[in-house]
Design a protein that fits this description.
It comes from Deinococcus radiophilus. With about 375 residues, the chain is an alpha/beta fold. Helix content is about 25%, strand content about 30%.
Length: about 375
């Protein structure tokens, strides 16, 4: 059974590292980079230059999975063929698609051309370099930084940058950066519990961040964005750096006559995470439009991508041994949002529908613990 795993993000690397040498199962992991990125820590790389990658090949020792660094152009599901950008075509018996997502700019004029994103380590490095330059005496541009989108990524980024700005201001004697956080919806961190959201808002305000909720970015230029409030009134905000974190969509890589699309360009899958119409193709992570048994959509988060990957690995080994594959049922261990330094908010889910909310250092420790748990799970 020739199995190809596309993508070494959370879903793909979880699949690969959970596999064990199994008769009739030959697996190949393909990614365009030779390392796995801890995407939930990219804000720390952007703010403080932290290393948030780990080499892939050592993670695969003992799994029987081979690795190849290559870029995928598209997948012909009807022809069972993976087309690489170097012109090669690879056939497969089973396929795992975990290629993640790309930024959704929603057609906002000028945004894609002028805004940075935070999707890969190179993006984080670019933001980190700009912040450092803004505290050099030779820098002459605007020292305002605009973050569009106040979800998990945008909030973690802007607070990390606020802390970094305070550090560099103290070190250089220069004024802190002016940070703007812009959200089209009525709240920052809309998926977080209301009380935790209130705590996070106080932290944001304490940093002196200008928070504009119920304001949508309607246009961007090289040095500014135009925002519109709920009444239709517009204003222009100047900035030396614009970072957009306001949405994602699935990568458009799959081609198939029977493919069924879902929200955000995702692929609809059955309860076992197989693409509808293609029972030999598993789609996991951000590319999957998956649902729990009660019909609730599976969130596009790192922890759920990891769960999907481990479950898919188990199903691949079952299939190789002629056993029936099993349905996937998501579960949430909780979530934590870093707010710079030792500050965080979040909640832990316990058996029996118990949920414990945490703030401050305790939440920060749990955030670190969740990352360490993930890092250990793929070694």
């Amino acid at each position: 059974m020739k199995t190809i795993i596309l993508g070494a993000g959370y879903g793909g690397i979880a699949t690969a590292t959970a596999l064990k040498p199994t008769e009739n199962l030959d697996a190949l992991l393909i990614d365009q980079r030779p390392y796995h990125t801890y995407y939930t820590l990219l804000h720390e790389a952007a703010g403080h230059g932290k290393t948030v990658t780990t080499p892939i090949e050592p993670l695969l020792e003992g799994t029987g999975v081979e690795f190849e660094q290559a870029s995928v152009d598209h997948v012909d599901l009807d022809g069972r063929a993976v087309h690489l950008r170097d012109g090669r075509v690879l056939d497969y018996t089973k396929l795992v698609v975990s290629m993640g997502s790309v930024t959704n700019f929603y057609g906002i004029k000028g945004l894609e051309e002028h805004a940075d994103v935070l999707k890969e380590i190179e993006d984080a490095e670019g933001i980190f370099d700009w912040v450092n330059r803004a505290f050099e005496s030779s820098y002459t541009g605007s020292r305002d930084l605009i973050v569009g989108g106040a979800g998990l990524t945008g909030t973690e980024l802007v607070t990390e940058l606020a802390q970094r700005s305070e550090e560099l201001s103290y070190k250089t004697g220069m004024p802190k950066l002016k940070l703007h956080l812009i959200e089209a919806g009525p709240n920052v961190l809309p998926t977080v519990d209301a009380k935790l959201r209130e705590r996070a808002l106080k932290v944001l305000q304490g940093y002196g961040i200008e928070i504009l909720t119920s304001h949508k970015i309607v246009e961007a230029s090289a040095n500014s964005v135009t925002v519109e409030d709920s009444s239709g009134a517009r204003r222009e905000i100047e900035g030396g750096k614009i970072v957009w974190t306001g949405g994602i969509r699935a990568r458009d890589l799959l081609r198939g006559e029977q493919l069924v699309g879902g929200p955000g360009g995702r692929v609809k899958v059955d309860q076992s995470l197989r693409a509808l119409g293609y029972p030999d193709v598993f789609v996991i992570g951000d590319m999957a439009a998956a649902n729990a048994s009660d019909g609730a959509p599976v969130p596009s988060t790192a922890q759920h991508a990891g769960q999907m990957g481990r479950h898919t690995a188990a199903n691949l080994m079952r299939a190789a041994q002629g056993e029936e594959i099993q349905p996937y049922e998501p579960y949430s261990q909780g979530e934590f949002v870093s707010l710079g330094g030792l500050m965080a908010v979040g909640a832990v889910n316990l058996p029996g529908d118990y949920r414990i909310a945490l703030t401050g250092v305790a939440a920060h420790v749990m955030k670190i613990a969740s990352h360490l748990r993930w890092a250990l799970s793929i070694k």
